[in-house]
Design brief:
Layout lengths: L3 H6 L1 H10 L6 H31 L5 H36 L20 E6 L12 H8 L2 E2 H8 L5 E2 L1 H20 L3 E3 L4 E3 H6 L13 E2 L4 E3 L4 H4 L7 E2 L6 E10 L18 E11 L4 H19 L3 E5 L11 E9 L4 E10 L5 H4 L2 E3 L5 E3 L1 E9 L1 H10 L7 E2 L5 H4 L3 E2 L2
Parallel strand pairs: 4-9, 8-14
Antiparallel strand pairs: 1-11, 2-3, 5-7, 6-7, 9-10, 10-16, 11-12, 12-13, 13-16, 14-15, 17-18
Helix pairs in contact: 3-4
């Protein structure tokens, strides 16, 4: 959520930022509600002051004067209730209005309406070529008995899968590889809750702008299933004042992720590229306003280090204004080469959400001058498991249908090739 000061000080900038991201919004609505709120706060305070004056005067009053004070006190008490009800309504409307606005973009974010406006930062490696007709990941999985979607569909429906055998071992090898590298860099390993309250999910900004439709709701419990570990880790320090001397605070969480994929009908339906449940390793950082862009560069560096270790071809993309998620001020994607698509597809994302999430979470820190500020929060994919598995299978397949295991995973896999 944006700071109301931004609406008061630079309403045109707020409106232009929203427009670049596809939102036609009028900041004057929020400003008007804010001003109305201030008037009501003053009115309620004045009534409470008068109520206190009356209460202190009653003991020394007598007769008709005393009764008059008692009657006035009752009237003031009713007026306070009425004004507080009105104030609560205005505050609710103001919050709802502020929640319509996406985060303020960093100045270096390219302007564009959709993914076609994304900027290529760097291309690493060449697209994989073969001297034979390559197979897609499901053809390879069938030969090696690694994935069973037919049986998963019987018990869970479409877009669920059983991973089997060496593919399971590879997933946990990726986990060991990522945790080993990230713990060296000061990340604290986290196994987060998979169920969080709708309040926590809403504070993270993932129930607005269509996000509600992507989430699995547990209606009887006013809770949701997480779509990524960041949605649990972000609220972990809700209503806390962090120790700035410990910044950056870095976590790496491992969890299953549940997504309805409501807006992706007919898209990437083959195999395990886009499913309703998968596992993911997520990096998450809390830091100061001054250090958040530096921390963002660091998360991208860690993503690239992990990916370079697997020796897969990829490119780094800076997302444009129209393709950047609402909570983010800047997002980089890593897109990896998938032979079956003949194209690069997203495998990683890292975002600086600045204080957009922490403002609602009330996650703060004290500066060296003793001033309390909202912390900045950042997130980044280490491995979103299914897509790295697919990328390894397709890029490292051999003519006989076997799959070469990346060298950095062999210690945990216990083999250098997956074969019949």
């Amino acid at each position: 959520m944006l700071d109301i000061k931004q609406f008061l000080d630079a309403p045109d900038m707020v409106a232009q930022n929203a427009k670049r991201r596809g939102f036609e919004l009028d900041p004057s609505v929020a400003v008007s509600l804010h001003q109305e709120r201030l008037k009501l706060v003053d009115a309620v305070q004045a009534l409470r002051t008068r109520a206190n004056e009356i209460a202190s005067s009653i003991p020394s009053a007598s007769g008709e004067e005393r009764q008059g004070l008692i009657d006035e006190g009752k009237q003031v008490k009713e007026q306070v209730k009425e004004q507080e009800t009105t104030l609560k309504d205005v505050e609710s409307r103001l919050e709802a209005e502020l929640l319509k606005y996406p985060n303020m973009l960093r100045e270096d974010v390219p302007v564009g309406a959709d993914a076609t406006g994304n900027e290529i930062v760097e291309v690493v490696g060449e697209p994989t070529t073969f001297t034979f007709e390559p197979k897609d990941h499901m053809q390879l999985a069938e030969t090696l008995d690694l994935i069973d979607m037919e049986r998963a569909a019987k018990i869970s429906g479409a877009r669920f899968a059983f991973l089997k055998g060496d593919l399971v071992l590879m997933q946990f090898a990726l986990l060991q590889y990522a945790f080993t590298e990230l713990v060296k860099e000061g990340f604290t390993p986290i196994l987060p809750p998979h169920i969080i309250s709708t309040e926590a999910m809403g504070a993270m900004g993932y129930l607005q702008h269509g996000g509600e439709e992507e989430v699995y709701h547990l209606r009887n419990d006013d809770a949701v299933l997480i779509g990524t570990a960041e949605q649990s880790i972000g609220p972990m320090h809700m209503d806390e004042i962090l120790d700035a001397s410990s910044f950056p605070i870095r976590y790496v969480g491992y969890s299953p992720c549940y997504r309805r994929e409501a807006g992706s009908y007919g898209k990437d339906t083959k195999g395990i590229f886009r499913v309703h449940q998968f596992s993911k390793i997520e990096m998450f950082s809390f830091t100061s306003e001054e250090a958040s862009d530096e921390e963002h560069a660091f998360l991208l560096k860690m993503q690239r280090r992990l990916w370079d270790g697997l020796k897969l071809p990829y490119r780094v993309m800076k997302l444009c204004s129209g393709d950047t998620g609402a909570p983010s001020a800047r997002t980089y994607d890593i897109e990896t080469w998938f032979p079956s698509y003949g194209d690069y597809r997203e495998t990683h994302s890292t975002s600086n959400t600045t204080d957009y999430q922490t403002r609602r979470l009330k996650t703060r820190y004290k500066t060296s001058e003793g001033k309390t500020e909202f912390a900045h929060a950042l997130n980044g994919t280490a491995f979103s498991m299914n897509r790295p598995l697919i990328a390894i299978m397709e890029n490292f397949q051999q003519e006989d249908g076997s799959i070469i295991v990346p060298e950095v995973l062999r210690t945990w896999m216990g083999k250098d090739v997956i074969k019949k």
